[in-house]
Amino acid sequence: MEPGPDPGPPPPAAPSFAEVLRLIQNGQEPPGLRHPHASPTGDSPTASRLPPPAKPWENRPGSAGPRCSQRSEHKEPPPLSTQQPGGSSDIA
């Protein structure tokens, strides 16, 4: 088996937060800082091709997402008993 290319020396250890802070406070750049060449193109924006995602409380037709538990059918509560606690009952 042939040896591969020499990977070279290991990369230097990342500077600590205190070192980076000191460099910035002294007006120096931290090592390994990248400067991307990003600039606006001047082109007009393109329209979105996807529909906006559904909100958790929305129920869109055909969606397989979970339903909100608070949107259950409204059922009337059972009537309150007018019997006083400790009173007699007609049920035998």
Strands, helices and their partners?
Layout: H1 17-25
Main traits of this protein?
single chain, 0% strand, 1 helix, 92 residues, little secondary structure
Give a short account of the largest sheet: none
Helix content: under 10%
Distance between the termini: 95 Å
> Which residues form runs of ≥5 with pLDDT under 50?
none
Radius of gyration from CA coordinates: 35 Å
The ordered string of helix (H) and strand (E) elements is H
Shape: elongated
Total helical elements: 1
Coarse structural class = little secondary structure
Task: Give a verbal description of the structure.
The chain is mostly loops and 92 residues long. The chain contains 1 helix and no strands. The longest helix has 9 residues, at 17-25.
Offer a concise description of the structure:
The protein is largely without helices or strands and 92 residues long.
